[in-house]
């Protein structure tokens, strides 16, 4: 079934959301690689094929294949990710699954210990934005670049 192209139907809404993306990628102190890693992990949880494809391709430009491939099980391979990246991934999972986790105090404390206040807020904005993109990309079946 052909679905609407959300960003064409609501260009002002898309512009607003892309404005948040621009802020995250240009006006924060978060490393670009960390941002894309969090974007990919959130997209994996939410099952957005377009975003998984896009952020995997972005990460493969700067990150070894092993790290990208093992991202879904990052907690089982702690030697591949430094402590701050592990904290970012844990917080990304916590916030993405907020209906289940309720952003537990323990998870917040761990994230707050790993990031300066502004960076933690910016990381949370990045997580929220990717959740929003996933909630548009998946239901409207934004296509992936991957081809047979």
Summarize the structure.
By secondary structure, the chain is mainly α. Helices cover 68% and strands 0% of the residues.
Number of domains: 1
CATH topology: the name is AhpD-like
Radius of gyration equals 15 Å
**How many distinct beta strands?**
0
Written as H for each helix and E for each strand, in order along the chain, the element string is HHHHHHHHH
Uncertain runs with pLDDT below 50, 5 residues or more? none
- Whole-number average pLDDT? 97
Provide the CATH superfamily: AhpD-like
Protein name: Carboxymuconolactone decarboxylase family protein
GO molecular function: peroxiredoxin activity
Domain Carboxymuconolactone decarboxylase-like: 12-94
Pfam families: CMD (PF02627)
What report would you give on this structure?
By secondary structure, the protein is an all-alpha fold. It has a single domain (29-138), classed as AhpD-like. Helix content is 68%, strand content 0%. It has nine helices and no strands. It has helices at 6-9, 11-26, 32-46, 49-60, 65-69, 83-96, 98-101, 105-114, 117-137. This is Carboxymuconolactone decarboxylase family protein.
């Amino acid at each position: 079934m052909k679905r609407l192209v959300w960003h064409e139907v609501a260009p002002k809404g898309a512009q607003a959301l892309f404005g948040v993306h621009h802020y995250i990628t240009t006006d924060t102190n978060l490393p670009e690689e960390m941002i894309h890693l969090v974007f990919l992990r959130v997209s994996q949880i939410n099952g957005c094929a377009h975003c998984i494809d896009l952020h995997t391709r972005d990460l493969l430009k700067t990150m070894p294949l092993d790290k990208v491939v093992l991202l879904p099980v990052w907690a089982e391979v702690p030697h591949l990710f430094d402590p701050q990246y592990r904290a970012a991934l844990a917080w990304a999972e916590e916030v993405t699954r907020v209906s289940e986790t309720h952003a537990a105090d323990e998870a917040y404390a761990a994230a707050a210990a790993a990031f300066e206040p502004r960076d933690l807020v910016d990381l949370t904005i990045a997580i929220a934005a990717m959740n929003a993109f996933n909630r548009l990309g998946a239901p409207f079946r934004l296509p992936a670049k991957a081809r047979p």
